[in-house]
Design a protein that fits this description.
This protein is an alpha/beta fold. The protein folds into 2 domains: 258 residues, TIM Barrel, CATH 3.20.20; 69 residues. 43% of the residues lie in helices and 15% in strands. The strands form 2 sheets. Strands 3, 4, 5, 6, 7, 8, 9, 10 and 11 form a 9-stranded parallel beta sheet that branches. Strands 1-2 form a two-stranded antiparallel sheet. Helix 4 links the parallel strand 6 and strand 7. The longest helix is centred in the C-terminal third of the chain and has 19 residues. The protein starts with a strand and ends with a helix. The protein binds flavin mononucleotide.
Length: 341
């Protein structure tokens, strides 16, 4: 991988800082951790980075939330230097407000890029004219991209889209061209329409069409469940793969994909002990962050369900996860599993 150094001191409030422009790779596709609300906090991002994810993004943050700068938003914006290159993802429907929010984010936390969300299907976001609703309002989408690019220049701005609003209005190539023309430097495409939600299958043929339609790097996203899945998408010509839900179960998927892409015979596979060690570490870090063990373990429930998917004999453990309020309780449930396997 090759990082290009550049000086973005224009954005610095406390003197010049050296930053990196978007990474490019001559050979292997880059691996991205997909932004996931409630999942991809700093702890999980670092877990994935240590296991081979090249590029991380925060979960989506609303332009309004940024401008109010409440404690919660500040928490979402927290990241460690080792997470770089890291992008902050923003959503909203008002070009001026998004530009203002992007500028504020750059001044506060100096991310390596700003990412614009044009894919979120959730009603609450769509009703506020954000996320995927902009896929059917291309003039506003274009204005948002242009105004954010201008506001944070020379910091790179990237975007993430779905392939269209619904089956009858798939417009990913049009959207991609508009975004490229607006100065967007890299595009992640989730191969589903808004109306699909998470049902059906991601359409990688449309992703391949987007790759052909633009010069900027296109990152393919959708339904990479195991490392080998990337092999069937290599012919699309994407510059990288973005992995979401599979990383929640198996954060090692990034190293596994890299092994496969390098042509290694046996991609790296973690043992049950290694998976358990990771779960423990994740819990400990959440407890330290929240300073409240019961609250931390409650927030870990969905994470634990994902981590233990496919564990041999994990059924009793998974049935009891919703009642767990301490790490000791989890350890007690886990021990028989580790002893048997
Ligand atoms: C729990 C969850 C939260 C998500 N939050 C975001 C988000 O904040 N921003 C975003 O662009 N996409 C979000 N997504 C969509 C993912 O980034 C990704 O596009 C989608 O999960 C498809 O990829 P996958 O099949 O690898 O999971 C979210 C998905 C999930 C499952």
């Amino acid at each position: 991988m090759n990082f290009q150094k550049e000086d973005n001191s224009e954005h610095s409030v406390s003197g010049p800082v050296t930053r990196y422009s978007l990474p490019v790779t001559a050979s292997l596709p880059l691996l991205f951790l997909a932004p996931m609300a409630g999942v991809t906090n700093s702890i999980f991002r670092r877990i994935c980075k240590e296991r081979g994810a090249d590029i991380l993004t925060t979960e989506f943050l609303s332009a309004d939330g940024i401008m109010h700068r409440n404690a919660r938003t500040e928490q979402y914006l927290n990241f460690l230097e080792e997470e770089r290159p890291l992008g902050v993802q923003l959503f909203g429907g008002d070009p001026e407000r998004l530009a203002e929010a992007a500028r504020a984010v750059v001044d506060w936390v100096r991310p390596d890029f700003i990412d614009l969300n044009f894919g979120c299907p959730v009603n609450k976001v769509v009703c506020r004219h954000g996320g995927s609703s902009l896929l059917r309002d291309c003039p506003t989408l274009e204005k948002i991209a242009q105004s954010v690019v201008k506001a944070v220049s020379p910091l790179p701005v990237t975007a993430k889209i779905r392939i269209g609003w619904d089956e009858s209005s798939i417009n990913a190539t049009t959207t991609a061209r508009l975004l490229e023309g607006s100065g967007i430097q890299r595009l992640a495409v989730h191969g589903r329409t808004r109306s699909q939600g998470y049902s059906g299958k991601a359409n990688w043929d449309v992703i391949a069409e987007v790759v052909q339609a633009v010069k900027m790097p296109v990152i393919g996203n959708g339904d990479i469940a195991v490392a080998a899945d990337v092999l069937q998408h290599l012919s699309t010509g994407v510059a990288g793969f973005m992995i979401g839900r599979a990383a929640m179960t198996n954060p090692w998927i990034f190293s596994e994909i890299r092994s496969l892409l390098r042509g290694d015979q046996l991609p790296f596979q973690p043992t049950l002990e290694e998976r358990w060690e990771l779960i423990r570490r994740h819990c400990r870090e959440e407890i330290a962050l929240k300073k409240n063990e019961a609250a931390a373990m409650a927030s870990m429930r969905a994470r634990l369900m994902a981590y233990t998917k496919g564990f041999p004999g994990a059924r009793p453990l998974r049935e009891k996860i919703s009642g767990i309020s301490s790490l000791v309780e989890l350890e007690e449930l886990m021990m028989p599993l580790l002893e048997e396997n």
